[in-house]
TOG domain-containing protein
Amino acid sequence: MDPFELLEPVDIIPKLPADLDTNLASKKWQERKTTLDSVHEILLKNPKLVDNPDCGDLIDKLTKVLKSDANINCAAVAAKCLTGMAKGLRNKFGPHTASLSPIIFDKFKEKKPHLRDPLIELIDAVFATTTLNNLSASILEAAKKPNPSQKSQLDHFIYRTFRSLNSKDIPKGLLKDLIASLTNHASDSDPEVRDASCAALGAIQKCIGESALAVFLGAEIVKDSTKMSKIAEYREKAVVEAESLKQASENNCASAASSQQCQQQIATNSNHQQQSVPQPQPQQIDPFELLEPVDIIPKLPGDLDTQLASKKWQERKAVLDSVHGILLENPKLADNPDYGDLIDKLTKVLKSDANINCAAIAAKCLTGMAKGLRNKFGPHTASLSPIIFDKFKEKKPHLRDPLIELIDAVFATTVII
């Protein structure tokens, strides 16, 4: 049982200071802070709030203070008040997150703990009232900010957020841009930003799996053993902390267990633990499902046919290298009828080109096509597979290895009857 459910909701609007607006408009920061302290005290005494329409007006006033008040003391108390509102209203606070979250991310440029710490608590409370999808736009926009403190605090927030998420909770459209931003942060000149980005990437890796994260990481990061080791370290930390948070939540339930229902739930959980029932491990999502399909036909070299017909193997290889590069950059292909023609051309090169270099690149291109189209590549397997098996007479690894990868990729696109 959630202890919050045991609380009686309170309408705090009648309890607010009568001179709230007057004091918030005062030129003396002490008067502004005094009235904010009064609001904060009311929220501390009443942690569960009745959803009064006037709560929206109060949230707007507090947001204005957080955004515009030049005094750090007033801004800090406003942040604490907003945290109380978010925790007290829960999902009814959700409609305010889109306008509030960019302000919080912007205020993270303040390094002083006096404001920074309330902001951290506030953004976590705000996230608890909404979904990651609703915060995606403000997160991606905040990632572009140049201030090191803003970047590092954003990345720490991402770490805390992804630490306890399941892969199904993540908007697929967010990951590519988010990981691109974190990759940039990982090369920042500020060591705190670099470390925070590795923490965020580690939590994402914990959430979606190592192979899924690798799809989006740039070669610079993947080849950097120090950064990859740091990411793995934070992944393990996220696993441990997620379990601790889960245990703390269960303990809260136990302490609030005044009802028989909650007691029974605790007993059931205890019995399961005593019986050592294996817990299901979080499933790693298929990285392919996270990718946006791309139609590469418009990206192909305009002189593709001419170059493939060239008598100079270097020219044939150069154009094949271009196609291979396009496929590497676009691992998931949108369905286009013209792919059949491209596959036929590449198959012809693999079958007939006497130059081993050209045949090897053609094999790599066909592998990219098979992996990018998956089962839509299936109709080509009957004609392609005999050619691959025939080419295995070539012992040189330069062609043999791409052929091995190709036949495995081709097999994955079809079924055994």
In short: Residues 1-130 form a domain with the Leucine-rich Repeat Variant fold (CATH 1.25.10.10). The chain has a mean pLDDT of 91.
